[in-house]
Structure prediction request, 533 residues.
Amino acid sequence: MGRSGARAVLRLIAAQARMSALAALQYRLGFWTEGLLGALWSAIGVIPLLVATSYQETVAGWGPWELMAVTGLFMVFSGIFGALLQPALIESMEHIRRGSLDALLLRPVDALALCLTAAFSPWRLTEAAAGAALLVVALVKVGAAPDLWMIGAALVVIAAGIVGLYALGILALCASFLAMQLQNLTYLFDALLDFARWPSSVFRGPLKALFTFVVPFAVMTTMPAEALLGRLAAVDLGIAVVVAAGLLVIARRCWSASLRRYASAGG
Amino acid sequence: MRRWLAASAALWRLGIAEAVAYRTSMLVWILTTTFPLVSLALWSEIARSGGPIGAYGAPEFVAYFVGAFLVRQLTASWVVWDLERQIRLGDLNVLLMRPIHPLLHHLMQNLAALPVRLVLAAPLAIAVLIAAGGATWTQDAGALVVLPLALIGGWLLNFAVQASIACLAFWVTRSSAVYEIWAGLFMVLSGYVLPTSLLPGEVATIARALPFHAALGFPTELAVGRLTSVEAATGLAIQWGWAAAAWLGLVWAWRRGVRVYGAYGA
Prediction:
């Protein structure tokens, strides 16, 4: 893809985002049902952790407000997933099921970029904003004073987490090419995201490896929190970047292979 | 009556056939309900590193959450999504034309999928139990007699609540948003993410009287042998009370709703 291609993709994404935003603004009730309620449910997941800290001072080495910081980061990721990735995946899978993906493939832009921007639910960003606010409050309460280096490390890990999230989304999309019955994978994804609510130190052995390397939830919520609290080891930063890059390469290859096999409606 | 039984049997066979045909899809749906297994990892780790929480040590958490996972499978219902869509898009017309009640259709469809669901979910539960080193179940004969009643009660309660909420679609366009509220409260108050007895003081007392706990926490605690016979009897009475209330609400909402049903949209 040349430079003009990249510019076309950006313009296209902007146009699709504008249209989705206008459509969402027509349904203002969505602010309450999707935005505020979504943020509330997301935050409510912290209750088990608060109950646990009422029995013990720390949970797997994390104090109450440190756990709040992890929850804030979880809400940021959950909001990004719900606003940007999930609607696009559902829309694209519908295209694959009906065969209308053909119309997308014919357009002179990268098909994957089109699929990943196919739909957008702006109200869900309320949750991400609430999560960012919670994160800031939690850091103040803990008394953390992250320097520029720590903030930089956190941003790198968050970026790696977003890349990992999108790579997993692309893999779910690839699976829906294989079997129509796998179209509910995006809901599974939504459910699995709950694993990111808790610091990865509560998991052990194979589960810990799974959530670091295969489904990198640790990269999304635990590592950025560690970075901001000044506890992230340099080697973990490296792991986060390598895992995200690896997943992205695998996802991109799967996507190309899936497209080659795609035989339009019912194929 | 015979006609009714024959129709139910036919719907049962249809439901089983559909569930078997869409087994991959169902397996994915089952995996979306693995949250108790995540809670298991969290709580047993907390109990292992810092000592028991309330009356729960690590092995008790394992038994409780594997139990919760299985109870969740056995009392599962998804009628809210199907019925809401049928009312909203007008597909309900097809069911209304048939000589059997549309709710009976959904009832049998949901019920027939349960055995298939359990067969698919059992290996996962067994694997977790082996990995966690086994768990104890209730040995009490009384509890074993009450348990089927508690599972039926839990299922009836879930189904009626979902169907009632779906019936709101007769009046408003997006009744599934109301269900999201129910589901959010269910997550915290039913014993899905933590046993409700661990909630602080008065909150626990209130939570244990609510329908959320009746639908999941109560049958689970019964199955893993955490209830005395008096507590079991009280729990069953509360649960069936909520189930009866939900069914009354459903019958009322359905009768009023069908009258305003305009075959398309709200």
Remarks:
- Chain B has one domain: 2-259.
- Chain B touches chain A through 34 residues (CB under 8 Å).
- Chain B is about 75% helix and 0% strand.
